[in-house]
Design brief:
Bound molecules: adenosine-5'-triphosphate, magnesium ion
Largest sheet: 7 strands, parallel
Number of strands: 7
Protein name: Cobyrinic acid ac-diamide synthase
CATH topology: Rossmann fold
InterPro entries: CobQ/CobB/MinD/ParA_Nub-bd_dom, DNA_Partitioning_ATPase, P-loop_NTPase
Shape: globular
Domain CobQ/CobB/MinD/ParA nucleotide binding: 3-186
Structural class: alpha/beta
CATH architecture: 3-Layer(aba) Sandwich
Distance between the termini: 13 Å
Radius of gyration: 16 Å
Length: 210
């Protein structure tokens, strides 16, 4: 199964979601390959830290730029789960990745600036679906305020209602320090002490497998 994590805006949390899902699936006993298709190399750097520190379970990591669909198909035959992290823009990696993926996870913060990118994203998705009509497109809200006093719309169904191509996930990833803390350690939040972050990633993984 190939899960591609994309956005057309930088910084909503694609890499954060990618590495945390990779750890959760690996802990479930799945063979996981993380594909870093962003020349910023954030996921690859996290992976190098994980390897250096000898963290278990081990996760495979491949770096590939440019046209990535054939690489993804090859990896799909060798791993249970392939998680692809691309750059926060309309890129060749994102477009070619979409033609191979089973699931596209569109990651957005609860901000108008992120929502504004979704019309263009919908066009790109439509083009990819000419080649890959089975692509399952899911919307994930990330960095939602964790302060209960802030009543921002974070229900993805309501938030993404204007974008029928993107099927909202019930899981919402909140803004939590744990997500920042684990990255430098080569860990995922499911290996960390914050139970709320751990529950979010486990719930996301379960929804994607349902
Ligand atoms: N849920 C979260 N809670 C707290 N901080 C977060 C969360 N998600 C991401 N961040 C922080 O926001 C910043 C951007 O996250 P990340 O690098 O995962 O985003 P990205 O979408 O991969 O960015 P890019 O488009 O540059 O690849 C990082 O500093 C990260 O630690
Ligand atoms: Mg990134």
């Amino acid at each position: 199964m190939i899960i591609l994590i994309g956005s057309q805006k930088g910084g909503p949390g694609k890499t954060t979601v990618a590495v945390n899902l990779a750890v959760e699936f690996a802990r479930q006993g799945k063979d996981v390959c993380l594909v870093d298709a962003d020349n910023q190399r954030s996921a690859a750097r996290w992976h190098a830290d994980r390897e250096e520190q000898g963290r278990q379970p081990a996760i495979a990591c491949v770096e590939k730029l440019g046209t990535i669909n054939q690489t993804l198909h090859d990896l799909d035959g060798r791993y249970d789960i392939v998680i692809v992290d691309v750059a926060g823009k309309d890129s060749k990696e994102m477009r070619t990745g979409m033609t191979a993926a089973d699931t596209l996870l569109v990651v957005v913060r609860p901000s108008q600036l992120d929502l504004d990118t979704l019309d263009h994203m919908t066009e790109v998705i439509d083009q990819a679906m000419d080649f890959n009509p089975e692509l399952d497109v899911r919307g994930l809200i990330t960095q939602a305020p964790s302060n209960p006093a802030i009543t921002e719309r974070t229900d993805a169904g309501e938030y993404l209602a204007d974008y029928p191509r993107i099927r909202p996930l019930e899981t919402v990833i909140h803004e939590r320090k744990a997500y920042r803390d684990v990255i430098g350690e080569g860990l995922g939040v499911v290996e960390w002490s914050n139970q709320k972050a751990k529950a979010e990633i486990q719930s996301l993984a379960a929804e994607l497998m349902a």
